[in-house]
Amino acid sequence: MRTMIPEGDFRFIALDVETACSDAGSICQIGLACVFPDNRIHTFSTLVNPGTRFDPFNVRLHGIGPDHVSGALRFDELLDHLFPLLSRHHLVQHSNFDKQALNAACRSCGREPPDFRWADSVTIARRAWPELLRNGGHGLGNLKRVLGLDFNHHDAGEDARAAALVVLHAETHLNLTFEELIKPARKNHPAAITREGDPTGALSGSVVVFTGALSMSREEAAAAAARVGMDVKSSVTNKTTYLVVGDQDLNVLAGHTKSSKHRRAEEMQSAGHPIQIVGETEFRTLVTNAAVS
Question: What is the pTM of this model?
Answer without folding.
Answer: 0.64
